[in-house]
From TrEMBL:
Protein's recorded name: AraC family transcriptional regulator
Residue ranges occupied by any HTH araC/xylS-type domain in the UniProt entry: 177-275
PANTHER family: HTH-TYPE TRANSCRIPTIONAL ACTIVATOR RHAS, HTH-TYPE TRANSCRIPTIONAL ACTIVATOR RHAS-RELATED
Gene3D superfamilies tied to this protein: Homeodomain-like, Jelly Rolls
Highest classification ranks of the organism: Bacteria, Bacillati, Actinomycetota, Actinomycetes, Propionibacteriales
Keyword Metal-binding set for record: no
GO molecular function: DNA-binding transcription factor activity; sequence-specific DNA binding
Entry keywords, A to Z: DNA-binding, Transcription, Transcription regulation
Keyword Ribonucleoprotein tagged: no
Pfam families the record matches: AraC_binding, HTH_18
Amino acid sequence: MVLTLRFELEAFGRPFNAARIWYGPDARDSVRHTHQDFYELMGVVAGGGEHMLSRGAVPLEPGDVVLVRPTDEHAMSGRATGGLEFVNVSFPIAAWQTFAALSRLDPTGSWDLAPRPPVFRADGGDLADLVGIFEQAVARSQDEPRDLDLLRFWTDLFLLVSPVGEAMDTGKPAWLRAAQAAMHEEENLRAGLPRMLELANVSAGHLAREMRRHDRITPVRFVTDLRLQQAASLLRTTPYSVAEIAERTGFGSQSYFARCFAANYYMSPREFRTLSRFGVHRESQ
């Protein structure tokens, strides 16, 4: 069973809610759930574990910050010695979308369109500062928090962190950065993994190892996620038919595209187009 959580029942009239949570190594996984009307920033402060998503588990370690969106179905699991300790900060959809628009944190809307919750890490790996920001949010949440406290949390956090896989990863090879950037071009995206191997000019095994190291993703998943993200953008912003979008993003057939899209967005491409144009968020089933 999947629970649907509502912000009012989490925050009880406050502008945001923050809580420190711990899952022991032998504890049962948390209840799988989704959010009806709020976003959540989850900061891992100690231990390790897994973020259990509908499409599989993603490892978590100290310093990871995950933006959980209203449509994400997820649960948590402590897998490391000592369990998993993290802080959740939740806030309403309208508040986050206003802040994100004013700050231009994500001008292309890719964070909301991505099939998986975006992950961030502190520039330079400064875990102490990151933990301090989340601990301050918990303290303010317990003492009549104000809207300004939420703005301070967001501002402090996003001055410190960057999305995983982008410029903050100074150790990522130049050839990998270039290949991943080039895959955003429609012609390359349509050609898929073979084209990415051509662009990278390395073996399939080496590409897979480097992407696991720097992005925690396989090349196949990278291409699929990018195709789905581009398809969602085209559905939202263009009049192209579903069949045309399937072809432009390299899915080969409309039926295969529809299956992949529904598996990741919990609705058909046509439903997504309708809801996104009216700004409606639908619960996962």
